[in-house]
Predict the structure.
Amino acid sequence: MKISLLCTGKTTDVHVQELMQVYAKRIGKYCSFKLIETTDVKSLDKTTLKKKETALMKTAIANADHIILLDETGKEFTSQQFSAFVQKKQLENKKHVLFIIGGAFGFSNEMYDLAHEKICLSKMTFPHQLVRLIFLEQLYRAFTILHHEPYHH
C-alpha cells in the first residue's frame, strides 16, 4: 500500500521540516510514503481561497486514490484505533491512501464530495504546520503498533 500526505501550502519552519523528514523516513520502513505540499495560495476572500486550494489539491489526486480528509468533523481515534484503521485499509487492498490537510479555512464542498472518509486528529485547533507533524507521528506510531514494536509504550 502506498500512503501520501497532501498538505496545502509549504512548511516554513525549519525545525518542523526536519522532524517531518525524520517521521517520513521512519514511515518509509513500513510502506511507500510520499509527502506532497502544494504552493501557497493567498487571497483575502475565503471562498476564492478554498477554490484555489482545491484546484491545486486536485492536481495531486488520481481517480483510484482513496481520499481521507483530516477534518475537525471527522471520526476520532485513539492511537490503537487508528492503527486498526490503517490495517483495515491494507486489508481492503487500497493501492493508494491519500490523507489531505486543508488550508486555514478548511475544505471546499468540492473536496468534501471527493473524499471517501474524514478523520479528526483532535477537537483542539493546531497550527497547520504542527498538524502535519502530529499526523506523521501518529502514522508512524500506528505502524509500530501493528508490528508490535516498543515505540508505543
In short: The longest strand covers residues 66-76. Strands lie at 2-7, 32-37, 66-76, 96-101, 117-120. The radius of gyration is 15 Å.
